[in-house]
Amino acid sequence: MKWFNSIAFRFWLTMNILILTAVLCISSFYLWKESSQLEESLKNEAISMANTLGSAIGLSMLKENYAEISPLAYSLIDQPDVKYVKIRNVEGRVINQKGETLDDPKKVMVTTVPIFYFQKEVGEIEIAVNTIKVEEQKEHVLRTTVITSIIISVISLLLSFWISGKLTLPLKKVVEATKQVTKGNRNVTVPEEQLTEINELVTSFNHMSRTIENFEDQLVNEINIATKSLSDKVSILEALSNIARSVMENNPSKKEVIRVSLKEILQYIPADKISIALWEEDNEEEILIVSLVNQQFLKEEIIPLADTPIHLMIENRQLMIRNHTTEEGIYPQEQVLLKEGIATTMMAPLITKDKVLGSLNLGSVSPNFFDRIHEEEIMMFAHQIAMALDRASLYMSLRRAAYYDHLTGLANSRLLRERIDEVIRHSEEDPNKKFAILFLDLDRFKNINDTLGHEVGDMVLKATSQLLIGNLSYKYLISRLGGDEFIILIPDISYEGEAIDCAKTILSLFNRPLRVKDYELHITGSIGISMYPADGKDADTLIKRADTAMYRVKDQGKNNFAIYAPLTSDPSYEKLALENDLRKALQKGEFIVHYQPKINIVEGTLSGFEALVRWKNSTRGLVSPGTFIPVAEETGLIVPIGAFVMKEAARQMVAWRQAGLPEVPIAVNLSTRQFLQSNLVQSVESILKETGLPPHLLELEITESMTIDLERSIEILAKLKKLGVKISIDDFGTGYSSLHYLQQLPIDRLKIDQSFVQNITVNENHAILVATIINMAKNLQLSVTAEGVETEKQATYLQKQKCEEVQGYFFSRPLSAEEIEGKYRELIEDVKNWKIG
């Protein structure tokens, strides 16, 4: 028995030593392995965070737009284990750092990760994570392992004295279980034995196994929690990045921004209904609801703002969560949601630059679905969406300014030419493809603009634009070149008649008068048509030839259309050449002034002169005023020409006074453009001072059409009268003014138009009309001048009607200053015969 015991003692002593050695080895291996895993896990976590940040800031690092990476770097510092983050560029310079560098490097694990953008290295991220928790876990495992090893050793020594050979089997079970633990199977239990020592060993072993298993489960759970938190934040960052990228890279419309934004939100928050509400400052009573349908398509509806709780956010600008349980006390729009099964809604304001753009709205069929975590995330999305919408609005504003007319909203010349070039490129691929250009110019628009003012002119252009938009096909491009010129591009026509039909449609739009302010205006248009490729193969040629065809319509009476046909003598070219010669004439001093005498047929005296401009061109010769005056009016050259005539006439009158000729007034015509100039009074005053002409010897002639804007006309004429000059109404009877205007206008004279005077001896109605005008002027204490007197009978009739002043070819044609001086005495003698009594 002693021998047996001795053998058993030695056997079990040896087994205990082996078990102790095995426990120590296993514990050491486990301790090393667990420590390595903890360190590797921490390092992998740091690398994962750095890679995530690197993906988010790669594009910004490439563009060296370092200002955008700061908010993203902050997202890592928010992690409890991250101590600092350094971001370096490719040169190794630190361009951003969040957190402070620790003096003791043993407390942190520093990891450096390169930043790549499409396989191009653009910098690196240095991230330091805290190792205190890992060291504490390693110490805990060490203590547990040591204590467990000691307990096992003590139990083994005690068992060696009490146990017999039957312990061999239980010890084998323990050894086998230890092997299982060593292999990684933590869920191992050894059956209990009757012997206390063996049972204690088994119990300790089982406790050790459970402790290790618990520690491992706890560590795995903490790693999973940290990984999920980081993963959630990375998901949000990716969604926000996708929203921002959709605007920065593609310059989309507001609708595209909304579609991308709502789609990204649904990837993160599984709401049952999602939409964005937008409202505009110019319409505060309605909002536009844009909903995402089937993850792709947008549904739009306009509803009254009062039917939603959204208007509350305009004032408080706070996120709102509303739970819907009954239909009592809720808005009509919420009643609709309730019927659709929506139990909870969340609304977040979209605010940018202190301006509320709208709201982000989410709905769920689950009660109390939205919590504080969702609130924070939704506000992040709302802020990003607001910035994206603001950027989209800015881009659309810039595009509108670059490609659309500011007054009418139509396409401008830049967009027109780009679209024509695009159609031409497509046409080159299809030799049978044709398209047409219609050049529309409003007839007599200049008269409206000059007489009624630019405000009314602008309103006419807007009304015309709306007519074209509302009545022409949406496939046509309607553009405004400037002024009253419009171009309609028909991008694809199968036959020439389609362009003609379009022209007829446009002309028919002007059959009814336009009502603008208090005016009923009869507008007509002239249209020129050019066809591709017959009339040109580039935008400039096609537009120019459509313009040429339009001018032919103008020359043939307006209010019609014409298709371009090449002519050897093109009126549009002649007009352009005439305009160029006019501009050169001002520089060369080719304009001269002729003077037509005005005769007082009551007193038989020379009563004044009218200054009339003439153009003596080196190649054209003496050009008729009827030829160049309309072009000068249209181009604005009439203003410097008119100033020249006034100054030259005043200078000539001063020279005649100094030569001893009797003082008589000189009449000068004012063009519409001159009359509407803001500096007209200053210009007249300056000429009077410069030439030394007494103001009462200057008479300014205006037409009735200039006085349509009565209030402004009275103001201008009153200022001129204050200078001391005389005012007369030229071509009286042919304008638009009502006769009662004459009572309010500060004028001195009426000039009866020659169209009435020429027929007074053959047309009784004209004779009565002239007599009536003379009597009316007498009653209004106005002087009267009859123009265009060409026969003695006309002069005699006017004398009988006591019209004191006449002018016309019967007495004298317009003469140069030299001719006036040569024939002055002869003229004086001739008019003496007309003195009454």
UniProtKB/TrEMBL annotation:
Keywords: Cell membrane, Membrane, Transmembrane, Transmembrane helix. Residues 433-566 form the GGDEF domain. The chain crosses the membrane at residues 12-32, 141-163. Residues 575-828 form the EAL domain. InterPro entries: Biofilm_reg_signaling (IPR052155), EAL_dom (IPR001633), EAL_sf (IPR035919), GAF (IPR003018), GAF-like_dom_sf (IPR029016), GGDEF_dom (IPR000160), HAMP_dom (IPR003660), Nucleotide_cyclase (IPR029787). The keyword Plastid does not apply. Pfam families: EAL (PF00563), GAF_2 (PF13185), GGDEF (PF00990), HAMP (PF00672). It is found in: Cell membrane. SMART domains: EAL, GAF, GGDEF, HAMP. This is Diguanylate cyclase (GGDEF)-like protein. It comes from Anoxybacillus andreesenii.
